[in-house]
Each structure stands twice: as structure tokens, then as C-alpha cells.
Amino acid sequence: MNIVIGSGVEMKGTVKIMQGVTLGGSLGRERVVNDCLMVQPFINGQVFIGIGPCFFGPVVVQHCVFTSTNSVVTKDCSNTLVYGNHEYKALGTQHIKELMLDG
Questions:
Q1: Does residue 103 belong to any structural domain of this protein?
Q2: What is the mean pLDDT of the chain?
Q3: What phi and psi, each to the nearest 5 degrees, are found at residue 88?
Q4: Which of 103, 102, 8, 94 is nearest to 50 (CA)?
Q5: Structural domains in the chain (count)
Q6: What are the E-state strand segments in 18-53?
Q7: Residue 93 placed within a domain
Q8: Which residues pair with 46 in a beta bridge?
Q9: Which CATH number belongs to the domain containing residue 75 in this structure?
Q10: 93 or 66: whose pLDDT is higher?
């Protein structure tokens, strides 16, 4: 399985990416964040991207985020578990350990 990362995607922090991930593709959508034009995802923080998620559009994924298998992200998210199609819930202890946030 391939990993696809669009040309304008930005990543900072610690990002772990598994197989079959797609980052990018905005279908013409754009937005301005902090006086900067965004058309691709911006990922910043302790982020785990599981098998097969897709991140589309100018979204901001920051702080502590864990994305599960085959999830779809088209909205900003922060300090959360993302699963399914835009489903969010609090991080569990197993997610925090995977993100190495438990000290």
C-alpha cells in the first residue's frame, strides 16, 4: 500500500504514518490561516496516522491526534481520536501510550 503526500502538505512535530495514507487534495478549496493561504493539510504535534486514513482539503490537525483505520478527515481536529467519517472522541490510554505522551 502506498502513502500519498500532496505537494503543499506541511508537517511539524512527531508524526507517525502507517501504510495506505492520503494527505492532500483540496478539490479547489482554500482558506487563510494566520495570513497564510492553505490548500493542503497542515499537521503539527504528536500525531499517529493509522492504516488508510484520508486527509482532504485545507485542514489543521494539531496537538495530540490519533487517526484510526480508514478514517476521513476534512475538518480541523485537535487533541482527539478520529475514526470513521468525521467521528471524534477523547483519546484513551492506549492512544496516549502510542503517542508516547504518558511520560
A1: no
A2: 89
A3: -130, 145
A4: 94
A5: 1
A6: 22-23, 31-33, 36-38, 42-49
A7: yes
A8: 14, 64
A9: 2.160.10.10
A10: 66
